[in-house]
């Protein structure tokens, strides 16, 4: 990767993230998932990052993407959603990833139900951003840009 070649990052979103903006309780804000994706793509482009922004409701698909990212990505940003609290297989896949990892959540998981206070994903993450809604997604991209620019 030369200075002019964009670094590649994957932004993985777990179950039900595609429903952002449709929640009557607005736990995850009013912004739709397509609008959030567009916001993240603009942020990544402004930082000269190539962004793969994807969402799946299936644990195995998320694991496949983590493994695929091993081939070309310098970093993974992940909101595993409900799988954050239960997926050891996602943790194992992340632990095998050689690049940087940031965990992100739209809501503040520590202000919610007690079962959300433990994250398996955090064990693999360089950092965690939670509770800032869509702005947290942009901050995660900015933080990832800085992390991957640092010498190993």
From TrEMBL:
Similarity comment: Belongs to the type-II 3-dehydroquinase family.
Catalytic activity: 3-dehydroquinate = 3-dehydroshikimate + H2O
Description of how the protein assembles with itself and partners: Homododecamer.
Function: Catalyzes a trans-dehydration via an enolate intermediate.
CDD domains: DHQase_II (cd00466)
HAMAP family xrefs: AroQ
Protein name according to UniProt: 3-dehydroquinate dehydratase
GO molecular-function terms, A-Z: 3-dehydroquinate dehydratase activity
Annotated residues for binding of substrate: 79, 92, 106-107, 116
Listed InterPro entries: DHquinase_II, DHquinase_II_sf
Active site annotation, chain numbering: 28 (proton acceptor), 105 (proton donor)
One Pfam family here: DHquinase_II
Pathway where it operates: Metabolic intermediate biosynthesis; chorismate biosynthesis; chorismate from D-erythrose 4-phosphate and phosphoenolpyruvate: step 3/7
Enzyme Commission code(s) on record: 4.2.1.10
Native organism: Achromobacter spanius
This protein's UniProt keywords: Amino-acid biosynthesis, Aromatic amino acid biosynthesis, Lyase
Mitochondrion as UniProt keyword: no
Domain of life (superkingdom): Bacteria
């Amino acid at each position: 990767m030369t200075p002019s070649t964009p670094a590649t990052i994957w932004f993985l979103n777990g179950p039900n993230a595609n429903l952002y903006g449709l929640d009557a309780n607005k736990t995850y804000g009013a912004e739709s998932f397509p609008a959030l994706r567009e916001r993240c793509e603009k942020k990544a482009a402004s930082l000269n990052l190539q962004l793969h922004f994807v969402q799946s409701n299936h644990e195995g698909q998320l694991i496949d993407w983590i493994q695929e990212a091993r081939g070309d990505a310098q970093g993974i940003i992940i909101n595993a959603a409900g799988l954050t609290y239960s997926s050891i297989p996602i943790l194992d896949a992340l632990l095998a990833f050689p690049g940087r990892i940031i965990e992100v959540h739209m809501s503040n998981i520590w202000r919610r139900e007690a079962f959300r206070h433990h994250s398996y994903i955090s064990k693999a993450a360089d950092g965690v951003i939670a509770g800032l809604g869509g702005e947290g997604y942009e901050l995660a991209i900015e933080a990832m840009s800085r992390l991957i620019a640092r010498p190993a």
